Amino acid sequence: xxxxxxxxxxxxxxxxxxxxxxxxxxxxxxxxxxxxxxxxxxxxxxxxxxxxxxxxxxxxxxxxxxxxxxxxxxxxxxxxxxxxxxxxxxxxxxxxxxxxxxxxxxxxxxxxxxxxxxxxxxxxxxxxxxxxxxxxxxxxxxxxxxxxxxxxxxxxxxxxxxxxxxxxxxxxxxxxxxxxxxxxxxxxxxxxxxxxxxxxxxxxxxxxxxxxxxxxxxxxxxxxxxxxxxxxxxxxxxxxxxxxxxxxxxxxxxxxxxxxxxxxxxxxxxxxxxxxxxxxxxxxxxxxxxxxxxxxxxxxxxxxxxxxxxxxxxxxxxxxxxxxxxxxxxxx
Length: 332
Fold this sequence. Notes:
The chain is α/β, with parallel strands linked by helices and 332 residues long. 44% of the residues lie in helices and 17% in strands. The protein has helices spanning 63-67, 93-106, 119-130, 151-162, 167-180, 182-194, 197-201, 221-230, 246-249, 251-263, 274-277, 286-305, 309-328; strands at 17-25, 28-36, 46-50, 72-77, 113-117, 136-140, 207-213, 234-239, 269-272.
């Protein structure tokens, strides 16, 4: 068991305050969802969350408020994702790293903890090679496995992992891909497939925590062993029962691991049970309340599609309030 301060559904869980802002750099925009609580508003450290290809900050709808109990959280919708206008420039890993650096500069984040999931691990790694002053990062479900650099094989592995994902998460992914669009997804995909993550990670001086779900076929255990072998200072953890999108359905476990990692209390290697890691069942409101949460997600989707940033912010704030009530018993 990993002891940590980040917990879901506990009596001292504070409501999350959400603010949405866009950061413009070199002709394109990145949407930033800032999440904090009254206790974490003045916290010294911050988390910057970067999701995988085609998806965005919606993937962190459970993890971000949990991390925000102890830190300021910045979840990014990168250009071309979540309704953001696609760039004319080639959407390479270096291009996305430029956008992340622009966000860091905008909010004066000199030493945040960077978290990347899937394709986001490549972007985080690229930023780390440029900014040696960043001391810690978390790479969850890193891709692409060097032995399977094939779009067909990766599609198969993604399909295998999806069999172990919650239905809610599958629908969230489908809606995100629709918003991204097939054409832009296919522009980004070759860059993801070519990025030499293992070679680039060898140039990173930061402490790195590697996390994978035990049922993640896209990011196999032997690939993590290879990454661990080249990393200068790395930790390695696995969560039982979780698949590729461990950041969502197992957000509590991820938050515990990150909390202990940042505090310097995490063993170098370990495994976490599914029971300890999974998000608890809603404590309040049942189906009716969760239907409201789904409705706000739909509103966010349409607002993002139409470029309505006010609508996006309202939907995100409303969704966060509903989720907080659901998992804390409606306390205010």
